[in-house]
Write a structure and sequence with these properties.
Layout: E1 3-8, H1 15-21, E2 23-25, H2 32-41, E3 47-52, E4 59-72, E5 96-111, H3 112-117, E6 135-138, H4 140-151
The protein binds a DNA duplex (12 and 12 nucleotides) through loops.
Length: about 150
DNA sequence: GCCAACGTTGGC
DNA sequence: GCCAACGTTGGC
């Protein structure tokens, strides 16, 4: 099993949206490196740190679980979609998505500042300046530390 | 709203 | 294949 961090803007899709929906497809990834992770490495059963970006403060809001492996992101072929890509076709969908399922919303939101202040999380990609990748691999110990930080009530 | 960092595009 | 210009991301 592997661990990941998925970024989302909570104005667009937050942990509360996921909690309400239960399962959703992770649409709209339009970056090749992130696409490659989604398409090739994200597997059913993997756990995901659900990260809120472009908000104040940014941080990890909870955990989701991958419940369906990569398949074509059909929003790329929908001219009405925000994520429309005219180059995508049924033969070559270009972009892929997975389905994720709600696991938990943290009782304690773990802000980016908290992550950066934790000595054990020094290597986390999300802590790196200029790190824009929206699908990031997370090593197991980091996942568990973040989960503990989020689960601990303050 | 600013702007640094990054990714993509396209002329050459 | 280089690289300048441009567009986007995302923290602050």
């Amino acid at each position: 099993m592997k661990y990941w961090l998925f970024k989302t803007e909570p104005d667009v899709f937050s942990i509360d949206h996921l909690k309400q929906k239960g399962i959703t497809h992770w649409e709209g990834v339009r970056n090749y490196q992130a696409r490659n992770y989604l398409r090739d490495q994200v597997k059913k059963g993997d756990l995901v740190l659900f990260y809120h970006s472009s908000t104040t403060p940014p941080g990890v809001a909870g955990i989701a679980c991958v419940c369906r492996e990569a398949y074509p992101d059909f929003t790329a072929q929908d001219p009405k979609s925000l994520y429309y890509d005219p180059k995508a076709t049924p033969e070559n969908p270009i972009w892929h998505m997975v389905d994720v399922e709600f696991v938990e919303k943290f009782p304690t939101y773990v802000s980016l500042e908290d992550l950066k202040n934790s000595a054990e999380l020094g290597g986390m990609l999300v802590c790196r300046r200029g790190m824009r990748l929206s699908i990031q691999p997370v090593i197991e110990p980091h996942f568990h530390i973040v989960k503990m930080m989020g689960t601990r009530r303050v």
